[in-house]
Amino acid sequence: MTLAPSTRARPDDSGRPVPPGGWLGWISTTDHKRVGLLTAATSLVLLLLMGVLALLMRGQLARPEETFLGPHLYDQVFTVHGSGMIYLVMTPFALGLGVYLVPLQTGAPGIALPRLTLLGYWLYAFGALTLLAGFATPTGAHAAGWFSYPPLADAEYSPGTGSDLWIVGVFLAVTGAILQGWAVLWTILRRRTRGMTMLRLPVFCWAMIATCLMVIGAFPALLAALTLLAAGRADASLFASNAWNIGYQHLFWFYGHPVVYVMFFPYLAAVAEVLAVFCGRRFFGYRGTVLSLLVFAALSMSVWGHHMFATGQAANDYYSLTSIALLVPAGVEYFGMLGTVLGARPRLRTPMLFALAFIPQFLIGGLTGIMVGTPVIDYHVTDSYFVVAHLHYVLFAGSAFGLFAAVYFWFPKVTGVLLDEGMGRLHFWLLVAGTNLTFLPMFALGYLGMPRRVSTYAAFDGFGTLNLLAGIGAALLAAGMAVFVVNVLRTLHARRLGRARPAGDDPWDGHTLEWATPSPPPRLNFPADRPLPPVTSFAPLLDLKRREGSRA
Amino acid sequence: MRQRHIFGTVFTVEAAIAGAVFLAVLGLLAWTLLRHRGTRPPAAAERSERPRLEAYYVGALAAFAVFLVAWTAWQNHREHPAAGPRPLRVDVTGFQWCWTFRYPGSPAHRSVTGTCEGRDMPTLVVPAGRTVQLRLTSRDVVHSLWVPGLRYKTDAFPHHVNTLTLTLDRAGRWRGRCAEFCGQRHHTMDFWIKAVPPRAYDRWVHGGTATV
Amino acid sequence: MRRHPSAVVVAGWALLNGVLLAVLAVYGESPLVYWLWGGVVLVLALAAAAVLVSSRSAPDQHVRYRVPDRGAGAVPPAAAGLLLVALGFVYGHWLLCVAVPLLGVSAALAVRGTTARER
User: Fold this and answer.
1) Assigned CATH class of A29-551
2) Is residue B161 helix, strand or coil?
3) Which residues in chain C are closer than 8 Å to A301, comparing Cβ atoms?
4) Which residues pair with B102 in a beta bridge?
5) Domain spans, chain A
6) Which residue of A123, A356, B58, C106 has the fewest C-beta atoms within 10 A of its own C-beta?
7) CATH T-level topology, domain B88-205
8) Do chains C and B touch (3 or more CB pairs under 8 A)?
9) Taking CB atoms and an 8 Å limit, are A283 and B48 in contact across chains?
10) What digits encode the pLDDT tens for the residues C35-92?
11) What residues form DSSP beta bridges with B113?
């Protein structure tokens, strides 16, 4: 194992030195750990903000004929909540996790294309600010939903700068995501350490390969859709043609479905790592899982039309075929997770609790996904609260639980200190109760006929009780997130004072290479005086511990 | 009501299967968590690859997917049969934020519209038992005509006509809604669809009222 | 094939996309979709070619690295410049008067190699 010849100052071209700890050292860092942290931290802050918007919506809908927000503000709030969660929270966090972890897991001292990775972060950060700046314009933020179909989103029906800023913000943020996707992909494919063959890559790295392939394949379609929308806002005659109206939907959903799996695979893989580590065994069916991830990702490129079943202008039979076919690779991954857990004696620490809850909760999202992938069911439930419930089970009850499993799991690696276990458990139970109380009633609401994106409903519609339940669930979610924020801030404060509980290099008995280096890892990831353990499988540290165990 | 029946069948089957799968997974998880409470961690002997078992469940999953794809595609085609002879044609136009229903075949070229504000909701009157073909378009942005009671919806695009064929077996009144977000008053864009006996329909289409 | 597994992964994935596109063609879709997905398959094929070229010129697993931090100081001004160019489409092209100098500064920083010095 030879690391890079360290960055000895070369007086001719290394330029003016800046202390690495200063703010300039952070904003222009080429250390993938810092870029990954910046990306993940920014998206976590935005997660809280988008959660506040969600609370406003649940407040508005808690009672019939409520006037707390009013239609125009409500439309802005749901648009920014949806856009924010997808473009600015779940996608960037997933990629940020990859930027931080992939070089560590593959034994590389740095990421490929570090400057482009950094540029990706800044484009994302500026894009987020631009999108949010819409609230400060006289006509308010964009208010045509996260998929913003024309002609509603054109200059005639959505006048105002807020919509233009939304386009610019999303364009920049997604460009940033594409750059980071390329960097992570190239790192896995071309920067692996000696002995790290493709079939010794951890499950998380394989999930990032599938994720990044979707990012580079599908995300440019969103840039095309946004360009089309911007052109249509400049020249309204464009959307006087049905070809461009339906064409926008094709372009958008060509991005819009794969992005769901971009917001899912990294979290699924984080859950897989957590399950394996806390069960003290290898992930079950590694090769099958790897293959299923790639097939899953390829199929995900072909299912976009199931968002368009009710348009009367899509090849419904094909999209239904590919959507239902997804159950095969998804089933393989579920058997993998179950095979890992069954018969084991799991240690129930906070990351494991989130990972275990992910299994049944995401399953609800997945099973209802097969339902909405069936045209005859979708004709009824599409654009209703059934779909809202389905997508929140996928993205919140599923992906966000994976996100928190990842945060609790890797927090000690990133900071060197452990989060408080008691508060973690409280966070977990509040989130489980809140999630199911908020989103389960929405299935019934949609079935009974409540359309999504309504700013209010009449008393005689009979939606009041179920919406009130969802509102109470949202309050529990808010309480849970408050506990999380206090936990993180208190731990970081204690760490600054030197009073936090040190985690050590490997607090959980991890399996992958990032646990074989100090916490937090040094600049080049692995200290020169501590050779990497031999990479004997996709769980090298587990092999090492077993060898030591059998020798003893 | 064809759509409602087919939806009912498929939804019941898929929901039952989904429920069974969910309970099985939940049961397995609960079993593994409760079985080992308080015992010592097991020895490190486990197999992480079982190719035969994996091939078996991949086969089972694939067979189930093939069944589901074929069966639901068949149901979807059953739901959209070729139009029977001489359906009643109604031209439906969605606009911000209400609906217009025109009866081009009627002697008086009847047309119904409204503002969808308060109680001023337009009513789409159709004869019970007869096939009705709605020709659906929009004057401005994309809307979607949804009748939750019939378990069916179709989008209304500007510069494009979609067709929605339905038959209401019995007299009655159902709520219709706009399902595609279409701007600030999206939530008020409701209408009624009312099926009346054929005689009453004939009276109405010649200018009478629809009170039956 | 065995010698370049990473290129095989990308190429195989592109091929899988091509197969799914071919199946879609059996069902029939609008021409826009063929152009879109066909273009994406092409991009993925190019990505596979790039990986292949790279893995032919260097071993599959690495032993030596360079820490590329030269010119990283150019990145924040470049991002700000790109933001201003994009905002120029909203607020008018006069913003280019600020954006172009900013991008110039960024280019100069990149050429001069100014960076935050790492340890």
Assistant:
1) mainly alpha
2) coil
3) 17, 20, 37, 40
4) B91, B111
5) 29-551
6) B58
7) Immunoglobulin-like (2.60.40)
8) no
9) yes
10) 999 999 999 999 999 999 998 888 777 666 666 667 788 999 999 999 999 999 999 9
11) B100
